[in-house]
Amino acid sequence: MTAEAYLTRRDAVVSATHGNRNVHSTGDGRTTFFSDLSLEEVTVRLHDCRAIEAHHMDRIYDTFNRYGFLVLEHALNSHRRQQFLSLTRLFGDPVIHNRSASDGIVTVAVANNNDGYLSASHEAHALHTDGTFQAVPPVVMGLQCERPALKGGLTALLSSKALFNWLRKIDPTALAALFEPDVLTVERDNQRHTRPVLHRIDNVIHMSFRDDSTVSFSSQIGVQRAIHLIRQYFLQAHNLKVFKLLSNQILLVDNSAILHGRTSFGKEEKRRLHRLNFDGSGLFSRRLVFGFTEF
């Protein structure tokens, strides 16, 4: 049975039970992770992303929903772009970026004129979520590796739920301040947006964060304390999962629950990746978990 037929049959059962096909699952089953998480635990290997078998589909959803991210490794060394774009049926339509091609894909490589975009430089890219300058950020961030750097250029991921739990233990008042509507303002390329760092939709928490030259934070004492604590948390190596994304691997991340970043690498390196963000409207994306719950 093909993945489409299998999941369509399961979807009919779920729809009969729950009615609304467009409602995503809540993040109450999301697991926190730290530096000791095994990459094997979150890697799904298949031949061609354009023809995903049902058992691979189940593993993709299970891994994404448990940890908030997964690494999809495709053995086929050709049609990389088409394989990447085929994931729209799982994760939704492409979110167009002002630097993307018409299909939504942005090439991530060192550019002589990077216009201040860290992703187009060799410098470290601090932990963040994508689209903080947009009223509606992308739901899923995708990153496909064509050629990794020989040295450096490592991917760093951090669990927002783990950070939330730590802040709640250390300073609940500072944590509460992050829900205020004007915590963070991002301004870039004539785009400007002010937002909370944390917000709830029903009982599910979503995080938006960035901390670089494009950002200003509220001067409110609780917010300043919270940002100070977040920066401290980021500095603890145990809190980050750091690894090298390899050729023919695609990183897929819940943009509301996982922060991602990158270490620096040599300017002469030929590192080349491609980014494609998704809006969560895919044929089977209702099976995905976004955000996280407090407990």
Characterization of the model:
The chain has 295 residues and is α+β, with helices and mostly antiparallel strands. It has one domain: Double-stranded beta-helix, CATH 3.60.130. The strands form four sheets. It has a six-stranded mixed β-sheet. It is globular and about 55 Å long. The N terminus is likely disordered.
Short description:
This protein has 295 residues and is of the alpha+beta class.
CATH class, please?
A: Alpha Beta
Uncertain runs: 1-25
Number of strands: 15
Give the ordered list of helices and strands: HEHEHHEEEEHHEEEEEHEEEE
Gap between N and C termini: 37 Å
Structural class: alpha+beta
The share of residues in extended strands comes to 25-35%
Name the average pLDDT.
88
Shape, principal axes of CA atoms? globular
In total, the number of domains comes to: 1
Radius of gyration: 19 Å
How many helices? 7
* Major beta-sheet overview: 6 strands, mixed
Helix fraction, binned, reads: 10-25%
**CATH homologous superfamily title:** Clavaminate synthase-like
CATH architectural type: 4-Layer Sandwich
In which order are the strands of the major sheet placed?
Answer: 1-2-13-5-15-3
Task: Fill in the CATH topology.
Answer: Double-stranded beta-helix
Topology readout:
Blueprint lengths: L2 H16 L24 E4 L7 H14 L1 E6 L5 H6 L2 H4 L14 E4 L15 E4 L11 E8 L7 E5 H11 L1 H6 L6 E5 L2 E5 L2 E4 L2 E4 L7 E3 L3 H14 L5 E4 L5 E6 L3 E5 L9 E7 L17
Parallel strand pairs: 1-2
Antiparallel strand pairs: 2-13, 3-15, 4-14, 5-13, 5-15, 6-12, 6-14, 7-8, 7-11, 9-10
